[in-house]
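pinging the channel bc i need a second pair of eyes. not urgent but kinda urgent?? the chain im working w is below, pasted from the shared doc
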Amino acid sequence: MQSKTPTPSGDTALRRFFTGAGLPAFLVTITLFYELFLLAVIFAPEGSGPWSRFAIDFKVWCFSYDPRTGGMEWSAVWMMLLEPVFITGMVLLIWHKALRGFLNFGGWSAQRAPIAGGAAVAAAALGVLYLYGLPEADGGDLPPFPGERIRTSLEPPEFSLTDQKGLPVRLSDLRGQVVVITGVYSHCTTACPKILYELRTLLDDLPAQARRELRIIALSLNPERDTTELMSLVADAYNFTHPEFRFINGDPVEMGKLLTRYQFSPVYNSSTGVIDHANLFILIDAAGRIAYRFNLDPKHAPWLREAVISLAEEAAAERSASAVAGL
């Protein structure tokens, strides 16, 4: 009668994992996929998916990424990429004998199966994230900017707040200029990087005359957390200049009322830490009235640009007319 080999107890299996090849193999696997994750972030495709937005925000904060030019601090990139290589080298140096037996490919080891399965799942997950970040298929051309047919003339809520430089900002002081109002918060990793990137692209694409007429106001969607230091970091990360771009904040209670009146409707999700909110671009004309409202839909970007140019030309013409009348 053949005797069965006793199954090792959980305590014995755990001891074998830490004293044998299990732990170093696990560390090598983790560092390998951390390296793949970094490469996937660095070379993430430009798109509108959550992965692309996360990759942009990750690179902005970790590598001083400039969405306008694609430039990064490559010294920081290489430092982060070399960390897993150093860890892997240390593991191989310390556990090389154990790993040599682990990597004996003469037969399949049950000890290798979970790690190989985990590796396959991780690789598939990275592939899905990459594809999820690709640009969405073109759903057709957007009609020409309808201009006056969609223009409004609404009274915007007034505010008196403080910007990233600690300076006061009043909406009434911006009368005579074109103002774009949006809402973001400093630690946002979802829609806010896309909003800021679109504003950066808008500024870079505008004719010089239109850009001189424009001011951008970003209302804080998280007034309890957004300090002037954090707001300044966000502005610098996207190469916004002051006072062309002003990230503003104030008393949390008053900010909450103001955000509701502008219909950003921020809602804090306690399970994820994310603030859900409307992704709006509110355009105010030189007369101080809300003229247009657009959202973050990529197809609306051309309309946003055309609306700013139209309002800027209108503002310049009104200023010229006033100057002539005053002579």
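so DSSP finds ten helices and nine strands in the chain. and Residues 10 and 16 are 10 Å apart (CA to CA). — does that match what u expected or am i reading it wrong
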